[in-house]
Fold this sequence. Notes:
Layout: E1 5-11, H1 13-16, H2 23-34, E2 38-45, H3 49-62, E3 67-71, H4 82-89, E4 92-93, H5 95-106, E5 119-122, E6 125-130, H6 134-155
Parallel strand pairs: 1-2, 1-3, 3-6
Antiparallel strand pairs: 4-5, 5-6
Helix pairs in contact: 2-6, 3-4, 5-6
Amino acid sequence: MAALRIGVLTSSDTRAAGGAEDTSGAALKSLSAGHGWEVVAYHLLPDDRDAISAALIEMADVDHCDIVFTTGGTGLSPRDVLPETTLSICDREVPGIGEVIRGESLKITSRAMVSRATAGQRGSTLIINMPGSEKAVRESFGFVEGVLEHAVEMMAGGGHG
Length: 161
């Protein structure tokens, strides 16, 4: 399989305004590169549905990312809109990914139960919502990294073996 094409989107009012460094987005780029995957798109945006929708659609339809990782915007704050925004532009939900991330994260912290993160498929792009902290992103990536190449192969019409 060719190297996966990766997009990373960070949703954070604070980081987008320059109030904090985007360590979780940087971690996703580094973890992806560690697998030999090519990061072809990156967006740091405020918690804004329209901006997030446009960026996700661009990464899927124009940049042709195989996987888009998002970070932030999955909690209970009124400005946390990433799960709804993700699902609104996807063709179908892939609930098992969010379930695994939450389930494994609950073994580390009870705060995982208030995560609303999900995953969805838009065309041949898998979009995965991850938590906003660098530590949680690194843990979550570890929970799902082993299935990602297989998922991309399946979306391209490959076997289920």
